[in-house]
Amino acid sequence: MRRIVELNDILTVKDIEKFLDIGRGKAYDLVHSKQFHVVRVGSRILIPKRSFLSWLKGPY
After folding, report:
1. Which of 13, 14, 55, 60 is 20 to 30 A (C-alpha) from 31?
2. CATH number for the domain harbouring residue 34
3. Which domain holds residue 43?
């Protein structure tokens, strides 16, 4: 697992996969769940770090 400070400002599905220690399918399920902001550039899926961390912290 990577540390939060090691993450780039823009994450990929692979980054989320490694950070959360989940499989590729689960990472894509999470990205497609629309629980955080996702930007599509062509076939690439990019996730702003701020949006991902906000989701990770939850409403508390």
Report:
1. 60
2. 3.90.105
3. 4-57
Mean pLDDT across the stretch 26-53? 95
CA distance 50 to 42: 22
Mean pLDDT of all residues in the chain? 91
Strand pairing report for 10-12 and 44-48: antiparallel
Q: Which two tokens stand for residue 52?
A: 């991902």
Domains of the chain: total: 1
Sign of CA dihedral 13, 15, 16, 18: positive
Kindly report the length of the chain: 60
Q: Give this prediction's pTM.
A: 0.83
Q: pLDDT by residue (tens digit) across 2-15?
A: 677 778 899 999 99
